[in-house]
Amino acid sequence: xxxxxxxxxxxxxxxxxxxxxxxxxxxxxxxxxxxxxxxxxxxxxxxxxxxxxxxxxxxxxxxxxxxxxxxxxxxxxxxxxxxxxxxxxxxxxxxxxxxxxxxxxxxxxxxxxxxxxxxxxxxxxxxxxxxxxxxxxxxxxxxxxxxxxxxxxxxxxxxxxxxxxxxxxxxxxxxxxxxxxxxxxxxxxxxxxxxxxxxxxxxxxxxxxxxxxxxxxxxxxxxxxxxxxxxxxxxxxxxxxxxxxxxxxxxxxxxxxxxxxxxxxxxxxxxxxxxxxxxxxxxxxxxxxxxxx
Length: 293
Known about the structure:
The protein is of the alpha/beta class and about 290 residues long. It has 2 domains: about 10-235, Phosphoenolpyruvate-binding domains (TIM Barrel); about 240-290. The protein is about 45% helix and about 15% strand. It has helices spanning about 20-25, 45-60, 80-90, 105-115, 130-135, 135-140, 155-160, 175-185, 200-215, 225-235, 240-255, 270-290; strands spanning about 10-15, 30-35, 65-70, 95, 125-130, 145-150, 190, 220, 260-265, 265-270. Strand 2 (about 30-35), helix 2 and strand 3 (about 65-70) form a beta-alpha-beta unit. It is globular.
């Protein structure tokens, strides 16, 4: 399942044990929701959270046009297998497995989903949040035809590296780059990790712009207040969309006239620029269809 123009600017984690939060998510302008059974749920609340999350995901249209993803517990936990089997029956848009470190883990994950009767439309998402996961990112990205998205777990990765959280995120930059390379090599989407400081609006915006510049499709979020600025930064601007339309139109006109060279706004335009322009246009249309900010 290669990456598509489906918007993933803002993907919000929602605690599976919080019924009010799951209900509120129906009104939030996030492109996607990760209904979380892992970190956000206490051990004694996990069975009840599983039932609640799977019921919400199974109710077709409950979250409107938002992409619905269930994050299960890891394969090495007491809850992982039951989570995966239940998520398969709920048939969300995707199931997210944490702390993926090898292609073999992907194969086991997919096998359990098939055993649970997962439908063909449910994709596999993977969290890369350990040094081993980063080193095996290419192997993970190509391990399944159902693979659709890589999610960076930068909090856990920073801890495992014994690094520091810095404004420029230099300590995790090499890992982000490797994972972006792996995702793009196999046509997958990739989402940046969370920003922990909820009152740091400038820092959050800077992190979003950095992720966009690196090639991320969007960012995972921990609070609804982060959605709107994230949506704005990761969406093509009106100026970008206008430029994209002019590039596509000029290239089409040149092809009809048999010209091999196209210049738009003083810049030479090649096929690669046309492909990117069409991608931006498709993304803009998909965002408009969602009706989100």
